[in-house]
């Protein structure tokens, strides 16, 4: 009897708001287009994304999984920064899935069992004609990979460097995320949050989630005085 795909540890899942609709492409439009059309005829089997922390890598990998699920395809999201302390047994049978999204692969590079597990998983996915998306903080050739065959596999696909948003685009991204949440975020309030809040966009979005909850609870619109009160600024 055939085995089902290995089960992930409890607690690992996709964020509901990590979709393509809530991501501002800006200079990364070509990457978003490749990801969102990966299952179309001629779609790229393997995409490698790299960029600084907070650049949107995890968001895009989860968005790709959501898009696959919307097509009734089976997708698996593996955040290795959280799962890397487990043995790589979760890579068994991944070729039975339609898409595997491996986040923060650099967090397990240099560990023999993980490098071997990834090498064999990549081969099985390729042979089965499935899709793979990988993210890291550095380009493939900059990773300190010990297994030469894995280093070769990491260069198989199309590599994209996630570009940082400028200040105007960060404002657009913040307001886009607010609209997805059903929030009205006036320009002056958004600018205040960008000026006073953390630099990383993912941390700004966490502050936005706090504001969403606080405004719903207090039945208040987002104003600068309310933001100061809700976030303790």
From TrEMBL:
<dbReference type="InterPro" id="IPR017788">
    <property type="entry name" value="Hda"/>
</dbReference>
<dbReference type="GO" id="GO:0032297">
    <property type="term" value="P:negative regulation of DNA-templated DNA replication initiation"/>
</dbReference>
<dbReference type="Pfam" id="PF00308">
    <property type="entry name" value="Bac_DnaA"/>
</dbReference>
<dbReference type="InterPro" id="IPR055199">
    <property type="entry name" value="Hda_lid"/>
</dbReference>
<dbReference type="Pfam" id="PF22688">
    <property type="entry name" value="Hda_lid"/>
</dbReference>
<dbReference type="GO" id="GO:0006270">
    <property type="term" value="P:DNA replication initiation"/>
</dbReference>
<dbReference type="InterPro" id="IPR027417">
    <property type="entry name" value="P-loop_NTPase"/>
</dbReference>
<dbReference type="InterPro" id="IPR013317">
    <property type="entry name" value="DnaA_dom"/>
</dbReference>
<feature type="domain" description="Chromosomal replication initiator protein DnaA ATPAse">
    <location>
        <begin position="94"/>
        <end position="159"/>
    </location>
</feature>
<protein>
    <submittedName>
        <fullName>DnaA regulatory inactivator Hda</fullName>
    </submittedName>
</protein>
<feature type="domain" description="Hda lid">
    <location>
        <begin position="167"/>
        <end position="231"/>
    </location>
</feature>
């Amino acid at each position: 009897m055939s085995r089902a795909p290995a089960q992930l540890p409890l607690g690992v899942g996709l964020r509901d708001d990590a979709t393509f609709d809530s991501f501002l492409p800006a200079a990364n439009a070509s990457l978003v287009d490749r990801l969102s059309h990966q299952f179309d005829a001629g779609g790229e089997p393997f995409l490698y994304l790299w960029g600084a922390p907070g650049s949107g890598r995890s968001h895009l990998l989860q968005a790709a999984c959501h898009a696959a699920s919307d097509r009734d395809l089976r997708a698996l999201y593996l955040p290795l920064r959280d799962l890397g302390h487990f043995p790589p047994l979760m890579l068994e049978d991944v070729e039975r899935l339609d898409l595997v999204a491996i986040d923060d692969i650099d967090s397990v590079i240099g560990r023999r069992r993980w490098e071997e597990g990834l090498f064999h998983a990549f081969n099985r996915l390729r042979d089965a004609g499935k899709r793979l998306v990988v993210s890291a903080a550095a380009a493939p050739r900059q990773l300190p990979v010990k297994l030469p065959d894995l280093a070769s596999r990491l260069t198989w696909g199309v590599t994209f460097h996630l570009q940082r948003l400028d200040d105007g685009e960060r404002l657009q991204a913040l307001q886009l995320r607010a609209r997805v949440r059903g929030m009205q975020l006036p320009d002056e309030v958004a600018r205040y949050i960008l000026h006073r809040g953390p630099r990383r966009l993912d941390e700004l979005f966490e502050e936005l989630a706090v504001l969403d909850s606080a405004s719903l609870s207090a039945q208040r619109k987002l104003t600068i005085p309310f933001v100061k009160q809700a976030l303790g600024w």
